[in-house]
Design a protein that fits this description.
The chain is an alpha/beta fold. It folds into two domains: 238 residues, Nucleotidyltransferase, domain 5; 186 residues, Nucleotidyltransferase, domain 5 (2-Layer Sandwich), CATH 3.30.420.40. Helix content is 41%, strand content 21%. It contains 16 helices and 22 strands. A hairpin with a 3-residue loop joins strand 1 and strand 2. Helix 2 packs across helix 3 and helix 12 runs parallel beside helix 13. The chain starts with 6 loop residues before the first strand and ends with a helix.
Length: 475
């Protein structure tokens, strides 16, 4: 490897955009680029994307990242990819995409999920660690069999989102074990696909890709992909993993007891554990570190509410500058005394109380937390970070780098030999930007208000469900 080959490229397919990040061997940022991705909602509760648009986004984001870094393509020593879990891409005998990809947020397969749980819920949980619901690929495939049988008959390959993107670069067909679990069709005993679960829906095993490690080099950038993306032909590409797996790894959560909170459109609480921790509906996935797993549970409304407040009340006054509006919101919030003069925001908000609710539920299952890593766009707010520390009573650290594209680049670095193993990659590349310690007095005050929040939540749940039924019937 020449001195020029001293950079790593991480590519992450997010729900709204594809991001490419180039880092140096020490983990510092060299350059990044992104391109939006469109979600279509053809019917209420449905959510789909066009895989061809993913690749178009990659072909724009990668050159932008190279230009921002001031690098030639041959400076990249390895490439890693990540994408949303659960998202299936189905192709035919010519490897042509048969239909749009069903996104993890899609709810069309609720009936199929119920049927699968009634039919074999204990088997699915015991084998693939999680309870079936419409988020998981298994229920989506059963829906397709029932409603689009002509598509299913033509399927020759099933990809998960990041695997399809990678196939456009290398022509190879693999997945990692975390994404096999995300499909809810894996067997934790064999760390591969489960014939028993596949048989529940009559899904042919030959359409499922080989399972490899996330850091395994599975191919190289082809000449065709090099012309389309601006990458150098022959650049090694590792398998990669889903976005939450590489993102959690990328913030340095490599020891049991380390937790993380992602403040994005939704809020997600993660915890690193030794061995599988199966507590449905809390999700359980394999970790990048062999032998470790992590749990994940979330609340649907988080930064989306914060953004709604900005867009409707602060954005017009800031002259269209979103960052300035967020800064003003942060300043104003910082001037308000803890407790907000008795104001409580529902449903499933205030956001910090909602996060504490997740902690309480996890602790009831016997899970324990130490330091918390904070991820996502909301982590940029100093006021928000301190509120979360005070409400939860835990120290909160903000990593220097903390998104999935960074984690994907680290996984590539392991694969091409920059780092001996995942722990070495974290030791060399992951830094703590700042840390918030909880204030005991504020924590005690927030604890009293949290009990009122819980009572209000319990009272509002049936009202919210009735409202949802009315809206759904009138749609």
């Amino acid at each position: 490897m020449t001195a020029a080959h001293n950079h790593l490229l991480g590519i992450d397919l997010g729900a709204g955009s594809l991001k490419a990040t180039i880092i140096r061997r020490d983990g510092s940022l060299a350059g990044e680029g992104s391109h939006p991705v469109t979600t279509k909602i053809p019917r209420f509760g449905w959510s789909e994307q066009d895989p061809a648009e993913w690749y178009q986004g990659l072909c724009r984001a990668v050159p932008a990242a190279l230009a921002a870094a001031g690098l030639s393509p041959d400076a990249v020593a390895g490439i890693g990819l990540s994408g949303g879990a659960h998202i299936p891409v189905l192709t035919d005998a010519e490897d042509r995409v048969l239909r749009p990809a069903i996104m993890w947020a899609d709810q069309r397969s609720a009936a199929e999920a119920r049927e699968l749980h009634e039919q074999a819920g204990e088997l699915i949980i015991r084998t693939s660690l999680n309870r079936v619901n419409p988020t998981w690929t298994l229920a989506m495939l059963k829906w397709l069999q029932r409603h689009e049988p002509e598509v299913v008959r033509r399927v020759r390959r099933l990809y998960i989102s990041k695997d399809y993107l990678r196939s456009r670069l290398t022509g190879s067909w693999e997945t990692d074990y975390s994404d096999a679990i995300g499909a809810l069709m894996a067997d934790d005993r064999t760390k591969s696909w489960s014939p028993e679960i596949a048989a529940l829906i009559g899904w042919p095993m030959e359409t499922l890709p080989p399972v490899v490690r996330p850091m395994d080099v599975v191919g190289e950038v082809t000449e065709k992909a090099a012309r389309e993306t601006g990458l150098a032909a022959g650049t090694p590409v590792v398998c990669g993993s889903n976005d939450t797996t590489v993102e959690f790894f990328g913030v340095g959560a490599i020891e049991p007891g380390i937790g993380a909170i992602k403040i994005a459109t939704s809020a997600v609480l993660f915890l690193a554990v030794r061995g599988p921790s199966v507590h449905p509906p809390v999700s359980c996935y394999p970790h990048i570190v062999e032998g470790m797993y992590y749990t994940a549970t979330g609340t649907n409304s988080c930064a989306s509410a914060h953004r709604w407040l900005r867009d409707n009340f602060f954005l017009p006054a800031s002259g269209g500058d979103g960052s300035a509006a967020f800064a003003e919101m942060d300043r104003l919030a910082g001037d308000v005394a803890p407790g907000s003069e008795g104001l409580i925001f529902h449903p499933y908000e205030g956001i910090a109380y909602s996060i504490r609710d997740l902690f309480e539920a996890a602790r009831a299952l016997g899970l324990s937390f130490g330091t918390i890593k904070l991820m996502g766009g909301g982590a940029r707010s100093a006021t928000w970070r301190q509120i979360i520390a005070d409400v939860t009573g835990l120290a909160v650290e903000r990593p220097g780098n903390g998104d999935a594209s960074f984690g994907a680049a680290l996984v590539a670095g392991i694969g091409v030999g920059f780092y001996a193993d995942p722990k070495a990659a974290v030791a060399q590349c992951v830094r703590v930007r700042d840390r918030c310690e909880p204030d005991p007095a504020r924590h005690a005050l927030y604890g009293q208000i949290f009990q009122i929040y819980k009572e209000a939540q319990a009272a509002l749940v049936p009202l919210n469900h009735r409202l949802h039924v009315i809206v759904e019937r009138s749609a």
